[in-house]
Specification:
Blueprint (H helix, E strand, L loop, with lengths): L4 E7 L5 E7 L15 E4 L3 E5 L4 E5 L7 E2 L3 H4 L2 H14 L7 H20 L13
Antiparallel strand pairs: 1-2, 3-4, 4-5, 5-6
């Protein structure tokens, strides 16, 4: 099976749908973005454009200037992860990316992959997961 391009739609309830589309394009001379990869998440208010270093929000109607979001490069450092971990302990708060978030993210990706390979809908029950 050739996986140069595919699309999967996640349906969370009657109102919430998320569509993931993957297209591979790796021009060798596209040096501005590592490996020629970038990600764009489109929603009803606009688009967030991700590279390996940062994220920028673009308003759907162009009513505002693009907004630079927190630099992903800064958040991916081990120092940030450790300082956030210690802050959670000190403040008695639960980290955003706890075990449930990580497990749900991994299983969501697995469910999408299974749906693509099968060419059919896959549910949490099909994976033996109770959410």
């Amino acid at each position: 099976m050739m996986m140069d391009g595919f699309s999967v739609q996640y349906i969370y309830d009657e109102q919430t749908h998320l569509e993931y589309t993957q297209l591979y394009l790796h021009p060798r001379n596209f040096k501005e973005i590592p490996n020629g990869q970038y990600y764009a998440i489109q929603g009803e208010k606009g688009t967030v454009f991700f590279t390996h270093d940062d994220a920028v929000f673009y308003d759907m109607y162009g009513d505002s200037e693009p907004k630079q979001l927190v630099s992903q490069k800064a958040k991916d450092t081990p120092e940030f992860a450790m300082s956030d971990f210690y802050a959670c302990i000190r403040e008695g708060r639960k980290p955003f990316g706890d075990i449930k978030v990580g497990a749900t993210a991994a299983l969501t990706a697995i469910m999408g992959r299974e749906a693509i390979y099968k060419g059919a809908s896959v549910t949490w029950d099909d994976l033996g997961v109770k959410v």
